[in-house]
Specification:
Helix content of chain B: 25-40%
Radius of gyration of chain B: 21 Å
Structural class of chain B: alpha/beta
Number of domains of chain B: 2
Number of helices of chain A: 8
Number of strands of chain B: 19
Strand order of the largest sheet of chain B: 5-4-3-6-7
Radius of gyration of chain A: 19 Å
Shape of chain B: globular
CATH architecture of the largest domain in chain B: 2-Layer Sandwich
Strand order of the largest sheet of chain A: 4-3-2-1-5-6-7
Order of helices and strands of chain A: EHHEHEHEHEEEHHH
Number of strands of chain A: 7
Strand content of chain A: 15-25%
CATH class of chain A: Alpha Beta
Oligomer: heterodimer
CATH superfamily of the largest domain in chain B: Aconitase, domain 3
Shape of chain A: globular
CATH class of the largest domain in chain B: Alpha Beta
Distance between the termini of chain B: 51 Å
Chain lengths: 207, 467
């Protein structure tokens, strides 16, 4: 996974509450047993003129050429609610998004972001609204997400500290594979299980 | 120090604290299904990693399998066969027990896990599925994750998790006749919103929760993910222990006694402190039905579609958008709204008691002309039990289709679906845009409301249909 430190990129506003993972990547777009090939299905229910078609709906924000190459999404509360499908983050990441700014995230979706090097940055709703309005007023404007300083900087020298839990921040900065990291603790894990198996034998099915 | 049930389970499973502040938590059970589990197993195999404890991991086919009688690996969903076969192959390679299509134990993962005694009080259980919180109904700490975290749990028997906050939702009072756990779950969402449980493990407690049977508790906990919660949990009682005794994967012999002794210690201590406490009166709950495209957009069944500019959950913009999608106008009564289809199924409401209550309404009645009505039992076992009781005949004679078990049309995966602009009354958990089909308009409600509405051809109050 690519480490994330700081990113300056075009930011796209999509200010709707409760955008669910069915909207981010409809189940019908998850066609292969793979983490790849999902970008074309991103927001497909909104992005294309009709379901099943690939004709862009000109009213959808990402179809505005000014947002081409957008890597930051500014969006509404409870983003990523619904199904746990990690395909939602795989689709966002494959499309190019590396940071999502919202007043709140669904917890499973937030975990999936971190697992894939995408920064889930939390800012107060009033700030997000202002930020989205500013971006909509000047399509193609950039923001800077600085994970080291934990700040988001806008074009008019405005700068806001965002919320992210330290565990997620460390993981994103390091870009390390969490499974490899945890496997370094395998002795501790096995020792814990050996003791646990004695105290809670009932929790271990007879293999 | 006094502890909540969550604290007790967490502390027992905490291996160590990580530098970032998260805890390394032992995971007792990993459950997988072919939709999101197959890709996790495949990725694990491709990276040359083994499953640390295959005897504590289980896989099942439920999400994209067809539910037509006589089904095979071939699916209505264009590439569903690939998911089925990849999962089967990966389970074989990794040595994980798979409940395949033809297995009598097959069914929706959150239905079969309690049936088989896989989920146990006091255990930690994860599944790459948001409705894993259902299983907290048995006193387990069970939560949904993504595929990458599932790989982590398979490879290490652990997850790194930030300790969630604790919330107790105390629900007292008696549910009125014809009002169910589903209505309670929807009423809670209407009152506290889809962010109401954010950051918390929600313990449902109080006399109304204790009075729910096990299947009702599963329904209540099921929708904790819609509540934005980390998970939900209910203190296990003697009814849970009796339910689990003798189930295939439940402890037996001397282990059984030790298990029950441990489980009796799980309940939150009398004076345990919660980060957040909410109270709710069950007595005031009516049968609920959703009108919008978020499960918080609900009203009592005798209510009307609210004006989006009135105070309510979510933004005015999102409620306005929901109205347009659902083709509804403020002030429209929900009861009496014509429906094109009726669906009974899903991990929320497809268990035997759900089917019994729906059948009690359908007995001797017919589905209204032009209404497509489908019942999908939650597991093969539920289906067989229902058939042994003759419930299938009630559904079939009423005009319902009677299917094989699976998640079915709770969501549209590219195969079978309801039609564009069709209005569906559904016992499922999500009314998102296009969830049940492209442009389909979903109203979520209890199974008895679905049954009553199927008969009436319009959204109908089940209390008027109960005999």
């Amino acid at each position: 996974m690519e480490p994330f430190t700081t990113l300056t990129a075009v930011a796209a506003p999509l200010l709707r509450d409760n955008i669910d993972t069915d909207a981010i990547i409809p189940s019908r777009e998850m066609r292969t047993v793979s983490k790849k090939g999902l970008a074309a299905g991103l927001f497909s229910g909104w992005r294309y003129a009709a379901i099943g078609s690939r004709d862009p709906d000109p009213d959808f924000v990402l179809n505005d050429p000014a947002y081409a190459g957008a890597q930051i999404l500014v969006t509404g509360a409870n983003f990523g609610c619904g199904s746990s499908r990690e395909h939602a983050v795989w689709a966002l990441a494959e499309y190019g998004f590396r940071a999502i700014i919202a007043p709140s995230f669904n917890p499973i979706f937030r975990g999936n972001c971190v697992a894939n090097g995408v920064v889930p940055a939390v800012l107060p709703g009033s700030l997000v609204e202002k930020m989205a309005a500013g971006l909509a007023a000047g399509p193609g404007r950039t923001l800077t997400v600085d994970l080291v300083a934990q700040r988001i900087d806008g074009p008019a020298q405005e700068s806001h500290r965002f919320q992210i839990d330290p565990e997620s921040r460390d993981a994103l900065l390091a870009g390390a594979d969490p499974i490899d990291q945890t496997l370094r603790l395998i002795r501790d894990i096995r020792a814990f299980i050996d003791v646990d198996r004695k105290t809670r034998s009932w929790a271990y099915p007879k293999g | 120090m006094s502890r909540t049930i969550f604290d007790k389970i967490w502390d027992q499973h905490r291996i160590k604290q990580m530098p970032g502040g998260a805890d390394l938590i032992l995971i007792d059970r990993v459950l997988l299904h072919e939709r999101t589990g197959g890709v996790a197993l495949k990725s694990l195999i491709e990276r040359g990693r083994a499953v640390l404890a295959p005897e504590r991991a289980f896989a099942v086919m439920d999400h994209i399998v067809d539910t037509f009688p006589g089904r095979t690996d071939r699916t209505t969903m264009p590439t569903g066969t690939d998911f089925i076969r990849a999962t089967r192959e990966a389970a074989r390679i990794t040595g994980i027990r798979l409940f395949d299509l033809d297995d009598p134990a097959q069914g929706i993962v959150h239905v079969i896990s309690p049936e088989l005694g896989i989920v146990l009080p006091g255990t930690t259980l994860i599944c790459p599925d948001s409705h894993t919180c259902s299983q907290g109904a048995l006193g387990a700490l069970a939560w949904g994750i993504g595929s990458t975290e599932a790989e982590h749990a398979l490879a290490t028997s652990t997850l790194r998790v930030n300790r969630p906050k604790t919330m107790r939702v105390r629900i007292d009072g008696r549910l009125a006749s014809g009002v169910t756990a589903k209505d309670l779950a929807l009423a809670l969402l209407g009152r506290f919103g889809v962010g109401g449980g954010a950051g918390h493990v929600v313990e449902y407690a109080g006399s109304a929760v204790e009075a729910l049977d096990i299947e009702g508790r599963l329904t209540l906990c099921n929708m904790a993910t819609e509540f934005g919660a980390f998970s939900a949990i209910i203190a296990p009682d003697e009814a849970i222990f009796a339910y689990l005794e003798g189930r295939p994967f439940a402890p037996s012999g001397a282990c059984w006694g030790a298990a029950v002794r441990a489980w009796r210690e799980l309940s939150s201590d009398e004076d345990a402190a919660f980060d957040t406490e909410l109270a709710f009166d069950a007595a005031g709950v009516a049968p609920m039905v959703s009108w919008g495209t978020s499960p918080q957009l609900v009203v009592p069944i005798d209510g009307a579609v609210p004006d989006p500019t009135d105070p309510g959950p979510g933004s005015i913009e999102s409620r306005t958008r929901a109205l347009a999608y659902m083709d509804l106008a403020p002030g429209t009564k929900l009861a009496g709204l014509p429906v094109d289809a009726a669906f009974i199924g899903s991990c929320t409401n497809s268990r035997l008691s759900d089917l019994r209550r729906a059948a009690a309404i359908l007995e001797g009645r017919k589905v209204a002309p032009g209404v497509k009505a489908i019942c999908v039992p939650g597991s093969t076992r539920v289906k067989r039990q229902a058939e042994a009781e003759g419930l299938h005949e009630v559904f079939l004679e009423a005009g319902f289709e009677w299917r094989e078990s699976g998640c079915s049309m709770c969501f549209f995966a590219g195969g079978e679906s309801f039609g564009a602009h069709e209005r569906v009354i559904s016992s499922t958990n999500r009314n998102f845009e296009s969830r049940q089909g492209p442009g389909t308009r979903t109203h979520i409600a209890s199974p008895e409301t679905v049954a009553a509405s199927a008969v009436a051809g319009v959204i109908a109050d089940p209390r008027e249909a109960v005999r």
